[in-house]
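S1.2 Input.
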Amino acid sequence: MKFKIFLMLFILFSINIINSSINIKFNDSIKYYNNSDYKNALSYYLDILKSGYDNFEINYNIGCCYYKLNEIGKARFYFERSLIYKPFDSDLNHNLKVIYNKLVKNQDNNEQIIINSRILYLIPINVVILINIILSIIAVILLTLLYNFYSYRKLILIFLATVIFFILIFTFYNIFQYKNIKDQKLIITKKNANVYLTPNENETIILTLEEGYSNKVYGELNYFIKTKFNDGLTGWIKKEDLIYKP
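S1.3 Output.
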């Protein structure tokens, strides 16, 4: 018993040390950013992200650093990741519109990304999960009442059917949220990135993409990422020319 208590205390102590270290890095990042030292600020923010702290503030600040360093493609990537957490944030939406204006091409399609995120993440993922848990508990309670209060059977069945309906609605909503997160997306980070017919840089170049271009990932092989275009054409892009979440 004592061992378990000591072990728990050790774990809690370790977590506090880690959180303290993260807070120090985060505060140092802010200082670097305010002093216009965007490279060091970015380095600290990326370290925090690699530590598993994936939230709005980290992604948004990384996006700001990349923007200040004039790396528009990477800035777009992290700003759009921020939409998962706060799709209605006014500063985020302003920054994305600035970036979309710089990209010029397909501005309407880019604006649609913000609209879609607002629909998908109108209710945060964690809140949707919590609602489903609560509704499931209510459903179990209603099932119990159904067998114990037969005289109220019809009324209980109506409530139960309503609860099950909302469980299904929120479950599908949650599935769409996770599907959107899991869908891999690439963004070009090089000024001009070549698209090859096969995953080989000695192969034929079928087209060239500008920095900030976005598309879905359809596969990867060695140092290349596979993508598809609206006309059905399939091509391969060097990993070093883009950013994506594996």
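S1.4 Remarks. The helical segments are 2-34, 38-50, 56-68, 72-82, 90-103, 107-120, 125-148, 153-182.
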